[in-house]
Amino acid sequence: MLRLKETRLVSDIASLKDIPAGKVLINTINAYSYTMTRHDSLFAEALAKGDYLIPDGASIVKACRWLNATSQPKERVAGWDLFISEMTQLEGKARSEGKKKVMFVGSTEETLEKIRHRAANDFPHLCVATFSPPYRTTFSEEENTAIVNAINRERPDLLWIGMTAPKQEKWLFSQWKRLDICCHAGTIGAVFDFYAGNIRRAPQWWQDHSLEWLYRLISEPRRMWRRYIIGNMKFLWYMIQEK
Q1: CA–CA gap between residue 27 and residue 25 (Å, rounded)
Q2: Is the pLDDT of residue 217 over 90?
Q3: What DSSP state is assigned to residue 176?
Q4: How far is residue 57's CA from residue 77's CA, in Å, rounded to a whole number?
Q5: What does R_g of the chain's alpha carbons equal in angstroms?
Q6: What is the mean pLDDT of residues 64-68?
């Protein structure tokens, strides 16, 4: 079982630049994903045994303080923050060292096309590779091999997995040893849709006041009510248990 009190978390956005080069697995955690680890042991293991864990939620930051946890993150670090930090750093390297490649694995071909188009403008020195896996809950061994082979063939300098939680974290963790890469690999789910423009991210005021979850609930009540109403209540109960 994943215990937030004992979990190592990234401190703040600035510290993302301190993640060392090489093959590094980076995940995010928020209140909803924490509740899922309570009944999904593989998901809990994937988050606990990754190289870096990002506190993607004000509730995680506040809970760590309340629990007097091992890690005391200074601020929320969203998946978007990780994405922008990594892409900006790689773009800088590409300017000085030559072309670098970033690969997006997940989502639909339509979304990936939007990502390729926007990235060409935002990060012109990066070559963008994509792969759209089958849309299903679990992959067959043949499908897993096809995804792994596609990644190994591209040999990216940065890898993003966007299959929604907990599928993306479990897939990357279970296939980690098969990936012949030497780069950062992050699971960023909704960032694919944010960057493609499929979903509008909350305006800055909502983000600054830790209300991005409420903005998404208001924007998509049918899809998000269970996550943010029931999920938040479960998270509070689990934090009381940990305390």
Answers
A1: 7
A2: no
A3: G
A4: 7
A5: 17
A6: 96
- Sheet architecture: strand order including 126-131: 52-55, 24-29, 184-187, 158-162, 100-106, 126-131
Q: At what angle do helices 167-175 and 141-154 cross, to 10 degrees?
A: 70
CA angle 106, 107, 111 (to 5 degrees): 125
Identify whether the C-beta of residue 111 lies closer than 8 Å to the C-beta of residue 43. Answer: no
**Which pair of structure tokens corresponds to residue 22?**
């090489």
Contacts of 129 (CB under 8 A, 6+ apart): 101, 102, 103, 104, 154, 156
Give the DSSP letter string of 89-145: HHHHHHHHH--EEEEEEES-HHHHHHHHHHHHHH-TTEEEEEE---SSSS--HHHHH
Smallest Cα–Cα separation from 127: which of 95, 102, 152, 94? 102
How far is 177 from 167, CA to CA, in rounded Å? 17
Euclidean distance between CA atoms 58 and 62, whole angstroms: 6
Least confident of 19-28, 29-38, 162-171, 219-228: 219-228
Contact by Cβ (8 Å): 12, 138: no
Cβ neighbours of residue 178 closer than 8 Å, sequence gap 6 or more: 148
Q: Per the structure block, which two tokens stand in for 141?
A: 């061994």
